[in-house]
Amino acid sequence: MNTNDPGCRARERAEAQRDRILDAARQCFTEHGFHAATIANIAETAQVSAGLIYRYFENKNAIVLAIIDRQLRQARRDIAALQTGMDAGDLVPRLARLWQKNEPGDLDPVLFLEMSAEASRNTEIAEALRQADRISADDFRGWLEGVAHSQGARPSPAELRVRGIAMRSLIAGLAVYIVRDPGTDPDDLRAALEKVVPALLRFDPAE
């Protein structure tokens, strides 16, 4: 990348401003809820003008859609990273930490639940979440198939689909649990996951 190119620098500045707005929106939606958070709140948190926000996003819906897209890209990176370690011993600590990280691009359990609730009222957000779920589900099924093949198994597409649903339901349930009981001992959470996850990743070569 040519950092001396004025056009390149302008694109980098624009991308940085856009990310700053999304980080601020995520914070505001988490603290105040989607409906209570205003563009003015987001602008104040991002330390930019409301006019600058409207340069990048038409409205709050557009901001939420951008957050969904960013979190989908993060989820796909996380699934791709699993390819380097296909056993339960690798996945359990990843799941235990999934909703407990604090970087802007990480999954946030409160934001996850807020967007899920908004999807029940907003068809545009609902469709965006469904599309993101379909893409990540396909990626996850591909990873599960690799796990099965490494054990000499060839499960049916239906079996992979069902196990994928079980795993994604577990991940969504973790978000609810952590929001309701944020003081959960991480060691207890990991021990609980170790009771369940290995069974979902164990395949019979006769399948």
UniProtKB/TrEMBL annotation:
The keyword Membrane does not apply. It holds the Pfam family TetR_N. Residues 38-57 bind DNA. Residues 15-75 form the HTH tetR-type domain. GO terms for molecular function: DNA-binding transcription factor activity; transcription cis-regulatory region binding. Keywords: DNA-binding. This is TetR family transcriptional regulator. It comes from Lysobacter defluvii IMMIB APB-9 = DSM 18482.
